[in-house]
Amino acid sequence: MVEPKFSDRYENAEVALAILQPLDVNRLPKVRISQENLNFYSDKWGEKVIKTITVSNPIPETILSGRWEVAPHVSDPPHTPSDHSWISFLPHKFEGNNIECKITVDTSKLVENEIYKREIILHNNSELETHKINIQVETGSVPKLIPNFMFFFGQFVLMFPCIFGSFILLKLNPLFILLSVIPIAISGLLNKMSTTAKILILGLVSLIITLSIWVALRSNFLMSDDFYRSLGKNFFHFFTLYSLQALIQLSWITILAIVAYVLNVLEPDKHQFRPKKTTGIITENNFNKLSSVSSDDKKGIMCFSIIGFYFSLGTIFFIFHKVISVLHCLTLGEISVLVGGAIATLSIALIPLIYLILKPLKITYKYRKAEPNLIKA
User: Fold this and answer.
1) Nearest to 210 by CA among 186, 188, 178
2) Helix ranges, 96-230 (H)
3) How many CA atoms lie less than 13 Å away from 15 in the CB half-sphere?
4) What's the predicted TM-score (pTM) here?
């Protein structure tokens, strides 16, 4: 109807419509991807890192279908469109207008501390038959287990108050062992907190623990009428118990100050060690050397396992001190029970500790064994 020559035009609109109606117009879907660039980061070597992207189609009355493929790279081993050595897709093929696709990167096939750049291709039935996405993968490191002088020195400083404190407190009452565990554990786990916040938390937890022990020790007395007739005496008893815990905490702080002074004498030109920094060396940084492959929750387990192991040693020393004088009076069965109890006490803390220490060693061994065949960046 708009031809330049009048003779080439349709006679009227009805004739033009009758000619256009039989024509079949095919609609094509359109690809929309939530992210055009994907960055994968692994904290530790060997992890599988997963990213999710959404592929959608806004064109009505059409269905988008597609399949994923990793573009060839000179460093990658030969692969098929449906399989790749360290990049995988779920689903690999899809059909729909709003699909969530998970892209998984297996860093156990890659070299540690490297940056990999690859390209993935989405083959689809839209007008543009291929859609490319850039991915970047940053691999983590293999755990480095290098216990140095500071590690062993920190272990000695941590071991002394645990063993000695447990031995002394068990002489008073077994429940008092909690009074020594709390300040040492909190000092290590809350090292990044401010001094004021740590003191408040220590005070609150100490108050709860002290009150619980006091109630447990005097539960029968609390139910009697004599309790109300001697409130002053009971308050003095509670204050004494709480003061004992305060002295234990002060002794821990004193140890930190002494250690900080010793470190300044040993390395005066390198560092200026303060009690707060020393706490980190003895506890948090100390555990990091053994748990560089572990998550934060496993580092906490390791912290309590080490402290629990040292307190178990103190408990065994206490039992040995009590039993050695009457050893000739015990039967073989009683001695076997005591030995079995000692082994069980140590095993409770030692078994998870050994597992957490051997795990990074296993990963290191696995990396060294696979290193010649790892894919380069």
Assistant:
1) 178
2) 149-172, 177-189, 195-217, 219-222, 226-229
3) 6
4) 0.56
Amino acid identity of 175?
L
Q: What is the mean pLDDT of residues 93-117?
A: 93
Structure tokens at 242: 């709480």
What residue segments make up the domains of the chain, in order of their start? Answer: 32-138, 149-372
Answer with the residue of higher pLDDT: 272 or 337.
337
Compute the residue count for the chain: 377
For 282-308, the pLDDT digits (tens) are 444 444 444 444 455 565 566 666 666
Neighbouring-strand partners of residue 100: 54
CA–CA–CA angle 202, 204, 208 (5° rounding): 115
DSSP string spanning 30-51?
--EES-SEEEEE-SBTT-EEEE
Q: Which CATH superfamily is domain 32-138 in?
A: Immunoglobulins (2.60.40.10)
The CA-CA-CA angle for residues 32, 35, 38, to 5°, reads 145
Query: Which pLDDT band, with edges at 50, 70 and 90, does 262 fall under?
Result: low
According to DSSP, the residues that pair with 177 across neighbouring strands are: none
Query: What pLDDT, in 10s, does the model give residues 178-201?
Result: 555 555 555 555 555 555 565 566
**Phi/psi at 88 (5° precision):** -135, 160
DSSP state of 374: P
CA distances from residue 115 to 110, 129, 317, 375 in whole angstroms, order as listed:
10, 29, 53, 12
